[in-house]
Amino acid sequence: MPTTHYDTPRIVLIRxxxxxxxxxxxxxxxxxYVIGWVFLWEKGYQETDxxxxxxxxxxxxxxxxxTSTLGTxxxxxxxxxxxxxEKNAVFIMxxxxxxxxxxxxxxxxxxxxxxxxxxxxxxxxxxxxxxSNGIQTGACIPYNSSIKTCEVFAWCPVEDDNHIPKPAFLQxxxxxxxxxxxNIWYPKFNFSKRNxxxxxxxxxxxxxxxxxxxxxxxxxxxxxxxxxAAGQNFQEMAVEGGVMGLQINWDCNxxxxxxxxxxxxxxxxxxxxxxxxxxxxxxxxxxxxxxKESSGIxxxxxxxxxxxxxxxxxxxxxxxxxxxxxxxNIGSGLALFGxxxxxxxxxxxxxxxxxxxxxxxKYKYVEDYELVGLLG
Length: 376
Description:
Blueprint: H1 7-41, E1 46-50, E2 52-60, E3 63-67, E4 71-75, H2 77-80, E5 89-108, E6 134-142, E7 148-156, E8 177-186, E9 191-194, H3 202-207, E10 220-222, H4 223-229, H5 234-240, E11 242-249, E12 252-253, E13 264-269, E14 284-292, E15 298-315, E16 317-321, H6 323-350, H7 355-362, H8 368-375
Parallel strand pairs: 11-15, 12-16
Antiparallel strand pairs: 1-16, 2-8, 3-4, 5-7, 5-15, 6-7, 8-9, 8-10, 11-13, 14-15
Helix pairs in contact: 1-6
């Protein structure tokens, strides 16, 4: 018998061993994925639920200012927290522009390209622009000794907000404290908890201040430390205001004791601070305090308030063992083992150097005359 007849079985045997090794390697990779990723990392054996949350806040702090406009004045919570309550947020005023003793009447508009004039023909009666403080009367009157502007019917004198106080009016606001009370509920598991943990005593709660290292679960935060933890400078931010985010993460594994389900706090600045884009930076709004004089004339104090808005963002997911997701993931994992054969075939049919040997054994090619004989 010619020796060439013995070569093919030997080569096929070598191919079969390599195919078996590849097949086992693919199966081990799938097994590692199912056990390591699906069950251990992603906890595929658990049913999950999203958090339902409520938040209330309480700010404390007192400071004093002494200015030529207001004199010596005490500022407490009722003065600088506006409004007193918001949904999942709190605003603390840190800087302001006062326009005192405004009353409705006629006065010159602030000078700009659209309001400066030389005579009455430059002013249009009834004209109102986007940035107007009032309605033009059609008269051109002196704003000061060198400039004339169009007269308006408005709250007079009109506000001049071209110069923001620096440093911030309430510099001491960085020492104000905020108590954040957060109650959470996972309805699917009927599990509820709050961020004032059961281990806290009244004495501890009165004296603790949040610190990531020493007091990571204290729900009382110093405003300056919140800004600092987000990588910002409080005194700079206090001038024009900004929006901060206090994030509370409640990721809980309910297969463990309830004491392990605790909040994790993090901080970041939410409004974009870009040194290259200085148009309309920070956060501000206007409000007024109204008075009526004995003569019956209504007056007001207009305040343009700059400050830090703190948004409290609560998120989280809880998981607990359940038979249904466990069986679904086990079944999916077993089904993946069927992929091992397909992947193995792809490797040996298209990637290996001697792939034609495997193809010869996997597929049987029938000649035309053999096919005719079979059909006949």
